[in-house]
Amino acid sequence: QEHVQEKIDYVYKVVVIGDSAVGKTQLLSRFTKNEFCFDSKSTIGVEFQTRTVTINNKVIKAQIWDTAGQERYRAVTSAYYRGALGAMLVYDITKRPTFDHVAKWVEELRAHADNSIVIMLIGNKADLVYQRAVPTEDAVEFAEDQGLYFSETSALSGDNVDTAFLRLLEEINGVIY
Ligand code: GDP
């Protein structure tokens, strides 16, 4: 069998945003390393992780950026959004305020990111069914209204995580080419 060296066709920068503790870092490590870390950190300093996927016969390196805790100090900078083609906007289905703040995050994206940025709204911690505080329909409605894609995920079980990221990457691919 012939040895095929992997060649990257495109690099897509994706930013992960949303309130503190909604599971941004865990979603990122689930998607890039298939890991969930139980005694998780404060992410300080970590910038991005990558995973390479093939979409429409093109090898795409997804470069997924973590806020590194900046959102706690309302200090997510324009540099963070620069060049981003996609955004995962995450809330926690068990914490209503994290969903109520989603509109603010959309504003932030509209202010700092490129107009053509593809946004996916993510209701994370879907495994915590008995603690649900945000009905799926509320999020579906908001997403339709704002023109966002939407998915509910669990970084803990891994449910829908790949599907959601891959969907976002496919949509980015569609916007660009
Ligand atoms: P971040 O501040 O948004 O990056 O949030 P983290 O990724 O650090 O996660 C915050 C807390 O939520 C941690 O205690 C995680 O273990 C927990 N967590 C993250 N994702 C999930 C999930 O899908 N389900 C459950 N049950 N807990 C989660």
From TrEMBL:
It comes from the Eukaryota. GO terms for molecular function: GTP binding; GTPase activity. Belongs to the small GTPase superfamily. Rab family. This is Ras-related protein RABA3. It comes from Erythroxylum novogranatense.
